[in-house]
């Protein structure tokens, strides 16, 4: 299985079938656009830096932007409705958290989550092997909020996203503040992509930090 980061909240997860999350067009946010062919695109909400699934290559790309439970190519996918801000969507609207299962491994992509999760939402998400979590604040959870949500979901692997990197034109925080709250968790710098199996998922919680 492989995960590759295309910047911001856009990841490519592949194991025969390829899933892309929250595709951006690159130029609108100052970084390189995703160069990817996929079968499925998950879109957490309809903002310009997350809704460019149309640019993903593929002969029959399926763009999913609603939370209904479905089975695509043997991959179970469902969503949990949340908000993009802390005032029930009044500022920035709604957001879908997507959970998908590949070969028994469960992934959760929080999209542009901007609120702390209710007990009901945490229960709906369920057990998670790898959690893709925004940490940059301003439009999403900040570092403190991210750790609150992580501690509620209790994933085995934490993948921070939606933070400031070189060239990014959005006014969000870099990853430093988030990493300051990591405590004794091991930080693994995986580069731009990582190949792994279920045996590589740790017993003790780790942070997998990607780079462009």
Describe the structure.
With 212 residues, the chain is mainly β. The protein has one domain (2-210): 4-Layer Sandwich (Metallo-beta-lactamase, Chain A). 11% of the residues lie in helices and 33% in strands. It contains three helices and 14 strands. The protein has helices at 119-125, 143-153, 176-180; strands at 2-5, 11-15, 17-21, 40-42, 62-64, 70-72, 75-83, 94-102, 105-109, 130-134, 157-161, 186-191, 193-195, 206-210. It has an eight-stranded mixed β-sheet with strand order 6-7-8-9-10-11-14-12, with helices on one face. It has a six-stranded mixed β-sheet with strand order 5-4-3-2-1-13, with no helix packed on it. Strand 8 (94-102) and strand 9 (105-109) form a beta hairpin. The radius of gyration is 16 Å and the shape is globular. The model has no long low-confidence stretch (mean pLDDT 97).
Structural class: mainly beta
Query: Which CATH architecture?
Result: 4-Layer Sandwich
Percent helix range: 10-25%
Mean pLDDT: 97
Q: What is the name of the CATH topology?
A: Metallo-beta-lactamase, Chain A
| Largest sheet, spatial ordering of strands | 6-7-8-9-10-11-14-12
Q: Evaluate the radius of gyration.
A: 16 Å
DSSP helix count?
3
Give the number of domains. Answer: 1
- CATH class category name: Alpha Beta
Question: In the CATH hierarchy, what is the superfamily?
Answer: Ribonuclease Z/Hydroxyacylglutathione hydrolase-like
DSSP strand tally: 14
Which band does the percent of strand residues land in? 25-35%
Measured between the Cα atoms of the first and last residue, the distance is: 19 Å
Major sheet details: 8 strands, mixed
Give the CA-based shape.
Answer: globular
Give the helices and strands as they follow along the chain: EEEEEEEEEHEHEHEEE
User: What are the segments in which pLDDT stays under 50 over at least 5 consecutive residues?
Assistant: none
């Amino acid at each position: 299985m492989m995960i590759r980061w295309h910047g911001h909240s856009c990841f490519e997860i592949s194991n025969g079938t390829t899933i892309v999350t929250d595709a951006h067009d690159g130029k609108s946010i100052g970084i390189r656009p995703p160069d990817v062919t996929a079968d499925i695109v998950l879109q957490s909400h309809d903002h310009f830096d997350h809704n460019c699934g149309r640019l993903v290559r593929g002969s029959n790309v399926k763009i999913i932007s609603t939370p209904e439970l479905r089975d695509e190519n043997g991959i179970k996918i469902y969503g949990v409705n949340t908000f993009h801000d802390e005032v029930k969507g009044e500022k920035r609207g709604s957001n879908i958290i997507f959970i998908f299962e590949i070969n028994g491994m469960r992934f959760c992509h929080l999209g542009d989550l901007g609120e702390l999760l209710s007990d009901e939402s945490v229960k709906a998400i369920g057990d998670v092997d790898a959690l893709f979590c925004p940490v940059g604040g301003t439009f999403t959870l900040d570092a403190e909020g991210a750790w609150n949500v992580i501690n509620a979901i209790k994933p085995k692997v934490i993948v921070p996203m939606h933070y400031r990197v070189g060239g990014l034109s959005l006014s969000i925080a870099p990853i430093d503040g988030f990493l300051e709250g990591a405590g004794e968790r091991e930080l693994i710098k995986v580069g731009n992509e990582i190949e792994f199996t279920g045996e590589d998922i740790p017993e003790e919680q780790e942070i997998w930090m990607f780079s462009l």
